[in-house]
Specification:
six-stranded mixed sheet; alpha+beta; single chain; globular
Length: about 280
């Protein structure tokens, strides 16, 4: 067993959800259909429906503390090629303030309370106890990595872990876009209900929705298209068995509105996706 895999197993046993990373810090696709990240590390947006994975195998959603999974044959090939270990901070109940340059580090030393710090290639990771939503570029050179995100494991660091301060949460709020609730009249078409549920576990649907939210949040261009294709993928995977609820749909609309989409466009994109799938 190689040293990276051995270290990952040790971290998992201590409660840190881990996953293997490529040399360029990207996660592996941990099933054959997703090898080489042919699916872009998310549900397949090129065609309707997600990839056929035996369990979630992309990015933060694949991170696990289960030593059986970490040491499984399905993950063995990835560990042999891995050049780093990633982990899901939010899954471990922590938040990483990723400081990407000297100026960002200097700002943190003045404005943030001392905590566990880990040196990185260009700056430092400041780690706090407590989880929150992840937001990039809250300041020049400063990203927040916690829920629905992954960070690179670079060692235990130095210093005592401090509680997540309000100033970090405020940084995330400063990047928020006012969000109007999704219209309550939008729902899964009646013709889509009553089918056989293909969800392997309750977590399967939850992770599918969370990954769709992340797909929308990560869009840096072509937001309209990304929203439509994401809705198409969600409906294709989860829309025919009636398990989608107003809450799930509302989460997707909220993610889209956070990227500047109007409630009307969300409703139109959902309707058009359902029509494309014959629902």
């Amino acid at each position: 067993m190689n040293s990276i895999r051995t270290t990952a197993l040790g971290l998992a046993e201590h409660g840190l959800p881990v996953l293997p990373l490529l040399a360029d810090k990207r996660p592996f696709g941990l099933c054959r259909a997703c090898e080489g990240l042919a699916c872009d590390g998310r549900p397949n947006m090129a065609t309707p429906g997600p990839c056929a994975c035996p369990w979630p195998c992309h990015g933060w959603a694949a991170a696990t503390t289960d030593p059986v999974v970490v040491g499984s044959p399905q993950w063995a090939a990835a560990w042999r090629r891995a050049r780093a270990i990633g982990y899901h901070p939010g899954g471990a109940g922590v938040t990483v303030v990723d400081l990407d340059n000297t100026a960002a580090v200097d700002w943190s030393r003045t404005n943030l309370p001392p905590t566990t710090t880990v040196p990185t290639t260009r700056g430092e990771h400041w780690i706090y106890r407590g989880a929150m939503r992840s937001v990039n570029a809250v300041r020049p050179g400063v990203d927040i990595k916690s829920l629905m995100s992954y960070a690179r494991w670079l060692g235990p660091g130095t210093g005592t872990l401090a509680e997540l301060p309000d100033v970090v949460r405020a940084l995330a709020e400063s990047k928020s876009t006012p969000i109007r609730p999704a219209p309550g009249v939008v729902a899964v078409p009646a013709s889509a209900r009553g089918g056989q549920c293909r969800h392997r576990t309750p977590a399967y649907l939850e992770r599918g929705i969370a990954m769709a939210e992340q797909r929308i949040a990560d869009a840096s261009s072509a937001v309209h298209t990304t929203v439509y294709r994401t809705f198409l993928a969600v409906l294709s995977a989860h829309g025919r068995c009636g398990c989608l609820t107003e809450v799930h749909i509302g989460r997707l609309f909220t993610a889209a509105q956070a990227k500047g989409e109007s409630p009307r466009h969300c409703a139109d994109a959902w309707s058009n996706a359902a029509t494309a799938l014959g629902m």
